[in-house]
């Protein structure tokens, strides 16, 4: 039987932590000139994945 592969897009976007998974904010990669400084500042850093999405992230990363 072949090995189970992880989704390569999910591998790049999510990182496992002790309490779940962390991810970067969306809408912070390009065309930032029209966005306010306050909005850009609020999109910095990482967040925990919402509990309702944890199961699908685990499936994409083949954790279980």
UniProtKB/TrEMBL annotation:
Protein name: Large ribosomal subunit protein bL35
InterPro entries assigned: Ribosomal_bL35 (IPR001706), Ribosomal_bL35-like (IPR021137), Ribosomal_bL35_CS (IPR018265), Ribosomal_bL35_sf (IPR037229)
Region: Disordered, residue numbers: 1-21, 38-64
Family the UniProt entry places it in: Belongs to the bacterial ribosomal protein bL35 family.
Naturally occurring in which organism (per UniProt): Thiopseudomonas acetoxidans
Keywords for the protein's UniProt record, in alphabetical order: Ribonucleoprotein, Ribosomal protein
HAMAP family reported for this sequence: Ribosomal_bL35 (MF_00514)
NCBIfam families: rpmI_bact
């Amino acid at each position: 039987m072949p090995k189970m592969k992880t989704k390569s897009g999910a591998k790049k976007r999510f990182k496992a932590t002790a309490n779940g998974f962390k991810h970067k904010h969306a809408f912070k990669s390009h065309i930032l000139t029209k966005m306010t400084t306050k909005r850009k500042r609020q999109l910095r850093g990482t967040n925990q994945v919402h509990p309702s999405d944890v199961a699908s992230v685990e499936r994409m990363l083949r954790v279980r």
